[in-house]
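Give me the fold.
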Amino acid sequence: MTIYRTHTCGELSKKNKDKDIILSGWINKKRDHGNLLFLDLRDNYGVTQCVVDKSNKCFKDLEKVQLESVVKINGKVVERTKDTINPELNTGEIEVNIISFEILGHCKELPMPVFSDQDYSEEIRLKYRFLDLRRKKIHENIVLRSKVISFIRSKMLELGFLEFQTPILTSSSPEGARDFLVPSRLSPGKFYALPQAPQQFKQLVMISGFDKYFQIAPCFRDEDSRADRSPGEFYQLDLEMSFVEQEDVFNIVEKLMTSLFKKFSSKKLLFEKFPKITYEETMLKYGTDKPDLRNPLIVNDLTDIFTREDVEFDIFKKLVKSGSKVRSIVVKNTKDKPRSFFDNIDKWAKEQGASGLAYFTFEKQKNISGKGPVGKFFSENSLKEIMKITSAEIGDSIFLACGKIKEVEKIAALARDKIAKDLNLIDEDKFAFCWIVDYPMFELDDLTNKIKFSHNPFSMPQGDIKNINFKKPLNIKAYQYDIVCNGVELSSGAIRNHVPDLMYKLFEIAGYDKKKVDEKFSGMINALSYGAPPHGGIAPGIDRIVMLLANEKNIREVTMFPMNQNAEDLMMKAPSTVSDEQLKELGISLKKK
């Protein structure tokens, strides 16, 4: 008990009947019935209905109080009649008869209502985030976030991990996204960087002899906003383990995720042992390395079909001869679907920048034939071969896309999601986790055509390290892996390269000579030369985990104080200009536009 309250607004019940109590909170709603004034008082814990009649001297004063003002109420708990019980409130069996009240904090005219969860513009919501956070849905999301983080901490300690904090001010990295730079006052002309992730530090923790490390790590990347990524900063569960193989990391993460998602969601886990899908397989079957396994549709390669003489679809045949690939998606039992369904999918594909999606339906009268715009171009034998490859049956339809490999993979992935959503094929009451494994160590840069690292440059290549064929770098696979849930990538991870000589060779392939590696990664490469254990880890994104558990589509809904899409904090007006004195102290001069 304090001078402000004997109870919270979420705990009173029939057992408190006839007791004198004190509540404090925000006025959530008011309902004036003439002789009676009802107000819902809200705090962090819930809502209590309070009532005052016209005979009370504070009636007129309460009528005038603005919503969202903070008030202290002295009153008596009374039991509601059966027909006035509110089952949606924990306190719904009682109400409080107001004896007196005191305004603790006046509220100005509201720029947006708090008692409603209706959507408002991003600008209003972020400028008045402190009001937005009072709203029920987002308030509960932030409480959920806190509980999720507490659970993760507890589980990681239970699994034998120690929590450490790594530096926030560090050196700039040549890999990954853009760094946020911090000028040094004591070393004019030099800069710290905010960490994009504690990657090098957590490896140094392993080299230092600590066996299992974790932290809820803040990470900073100067990159554009997306629905599943905050601009500026985000948080991840950073973990690293010594003397482990890939499977050991998987076992720990699966234990954590299954217990976490069972604890905080009523949705079912489609798999408790997460399936492993190779990068090559996922790009073929789903067109993406972030597959939603709740979606039953599968992509098949039909490129070879268009080299047959009994296929007369000349547009695709010419493209295939020039190196294009053909991908297909079969939709089951579509005989009752109108022509408009297929045409709308084709139109949608063109809106995504593709040339469209060809389609036809398998039918059989005397012979098997293709019904639809391009069905006539296929012989019965070629249709039988397509049915064999795709497991299609009579009455099913097939969509076809043709193009360069990356283009056709992209439209196949988008079409797979689009068709499944249009046909309600996705079970929204499930979580489907999977691992994507066997990523290539290197890839060709689309712009420069030069070889670059495809994922993490500190990853261990697969196979016998003494016999790796460095002359064919694009064939080298790495112990790199992603964990994906419902089409959302939660994290990338890897078994790390702990052998300095091997690291030099791999960086040389990507264009870094020994001198440059020593210069950019001096702390890491030096530490590895003093006896480093085999080690590996991963860093699932906290924001994305909570987004899935809260059933939200935008990461802003589970972040307490997010920036807008231009990386601006509208509430605190950041970024902001600084004084000439501050710049002078840092040895910085600004170019005038």
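The chain is about 25% helix and 25% strand.
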